[in-house]
Design goal:
Blueprint lengths: L9 E5 L2 H15 L7 E5 L2 H6 L3 H13 L1 E4 L7 H6 L9 H9 L2 E6 L16 E5 L9 E5 L4 E8 L2 E9 L5 E5 L4 H18 L2 E6 L7 H15 L2 H8 L3 E5 H10 L4 E5 L1 H14 L6 E6 L5 E5 L5 H8 L9 H18 L2 H19 L2 E2 L1 H4 L9 E2 L2 H10 L2
Parallel strand pairs: 1-2, 1-3, 3-14, 5-12, 10-11, 10-12, 15-16
Antiparallel strand pairs: 4-5, 4-13, 6-9, 7-8, 13-14
The chain binds NADP nicotinamide-adenine-dinucleotide phosphate and magnesium ion.
The site of NADP nicotinamide-adenine-dinucleotide phosphate has 17 residues, from helix 11.
Length: 400
């Protein structure tokens, strides 16, 4: 049988520990038998990052800018323990952080839905994709305690001169103050990434802030989203695609989300996204069933699993123990990247293959074959059977 050909490459970013092991298995068992894989390979495993002084991560980001589509394996973000374990020269930064900054991108997380792994909210029958703005607000805030009798003021120096705004007079007792900032350019990039991803996935886009209370700060987000939507032609593109951009207040959004059926993208400011993405992920059942895609405002896409390198399973596997690690989110990172590549290159065969692999993966679970983490969650008709990772991958391959 002739393998599916790829005109243009996918930028492949390898990673660490258990997910690095899964990475090779997924390619060997599920992809390479059918596709003549055309990738540009970057090893983002911690030893290689250390060896290249992290240059490999920056090179990988440039390659994604050039080729538009990347797929990334989970990687270790070093901490003190890893310094010793890997004998590192330096505590290298999070590769995901580096890629996000280089691509100026936004992370979209979406659950993979299989019958039998039911969300805790029964009405959520379609995925809810949460987009978190990754810059500013609380996360680059400045804070201080103020003693009783003190005053806190905000001083702004710009082309309009010097302005002093009183925050609070602490005459009656001590307290705390906090300041936050964001930039128009970051907010606009966030808006563009959200509009691009909504168009790419043909889903509605919801965005919410607390602009009734925060009439300048939050209102700026609301205004810039509408400005980008109208001035950069997204209004027409959305109309053509038959999708909607919907703005509301954050409390109204939360209430609507709970009663919704899913099937839309929920864009959140930094703090809302931090909190709500964890709520949505846990309600959909499992981090191992959550995909993640980094989308740049220029329409560059990097696909990955939302979970980490599954260290505990790796140490166990190294000792020869069993490996029932869930590969589903990593499979979907590959299918996401192949489908995007296929769409850009008008490669029908590759697109069909990506969709078929996703369907085979979900069907395998629905038929009762799954990794250990899903067994206790499974409420489907079949009797769930716990499988070792490679056996599970071969079971999927039977449907291909
Ligand atoms: P983790 O790798 O996501 O794993 C945490 C626990 O969640 C696992 O021990 C396992 O629970 C369960 N789990 C996660 N993914 C699973 C899967 N595919 N199949 C089955 N169970 C799964 O998070 P972590 O232990 O906090 O972090 C480990 C390393 O990953 C760290 O070095 C961190 O820096 C890195 N990390 C990388 C990324 C990324 O590259 N995107 C994201 C997060 C973390 P049980 O042990 O109970 O089975
Ligand atoms: Mg969080």
């Amino acid at each position: 049988m002739k393998k599916i050909q790829m005109q243009n490459p996918i930028v492949e970013l390898d990673g660490d520990e258990m997910t690095r092991v899964l990475w090779a298995w997924i390619k060997d068992i599920l992809i390479k038998p059918h596709v003549e894989l055309n990738t540009i390979y970057y090893d983002l495993g911690l030893p290689e990052r250390d060896k290249t002084n992290d240059q490999i991560t920056f090179d990988a980001a440039e390659a994604i800018k050039k080729h538009k589509v990347g797929v990334k394996c989970a990687t270790i973000t070093p901490n003190q323990d890893r310094m010793g374990e890997y004998n590192l020269k330096q505590m290298w930064k999070s590769p995901n952080g580096t890629l996000r900054s280089a691509l100026d991108g936004t992370v979209f997380r979406a659950p993979i839905i299989a019958k039998g792994i039911e969300p805790f909210i029964p009405t959520w029958t379609a995925p809810i994709t949460v987009a978190r703005h990754g810059y500013g607000d609380l996360y680059s805030g400045v804070e201080a305690k103020v003693s009783a009798g003190g005053t806190a003021k905000m001083v702004i120096e710009d082309e309009n001169g010097v302005r002093e705004i009183k925050i609070h007079d602490f005459a009656k007792g001590a307290g705390v103050v906090q300041s936050a900032h964001n930039t128009d350019s970051s907010i606009k990039s966030f808006a563009k990434s959200c509009f691009e991803y909504a168009l790419a996935t043909k889903q509605e886009l919801w965005f919410a802030t607390k602009d009734t209370i925060s009439k300048t700060y939050h209102h700026r987000f609301k205004d810039l989203f509408f400005e980008v939507f109208e001035n950069e032609g997204y209004d027409k593109k959305f109309a053509t695609a038959g999708i909607e951009y919907f703005y509301t207040l954050i409390d109204d959004a939360v209430a609507r989300v709970m009663r919704s059926n899913g099937g839309y993208i929920w864009a959140c400011t930094n703090y809302d996204g931090d909190v709500m993405s964890d709520m949505v992920a846990s309600a959909f059942g499992s981090l191992a069933m959550m995909t993640s895609v980094l989308v740049s405002p220029n329409g560059e896409f990097e696909f990955e699993a939302a979970h980490g390198t599954v260290t505990r399973h790796y140490y166990n596997w190294q000792k020869g123990g069993e490996t029932s690690t869930n590969p589903v989110a990593t499979i979907f990172a590959w299918t996401g990247a192949m489908a995007k590549r296929a769409e850009l290159d008008k490669n029908e065969a590759l697109l069909a293959f990506s969709k078929k692999l996703e369907k085979a993966t979900v069907t395998t679970i629905e038929n009762g074959f799954m990794t250990g983490d899903l067994v206790s969650l499974f409420k489907g008709a079949a009797t769930p059977q716990k499988m070792e990772t490679q056996a599970f991958l071969r079971k999927i391959a039977e449907l291909m």
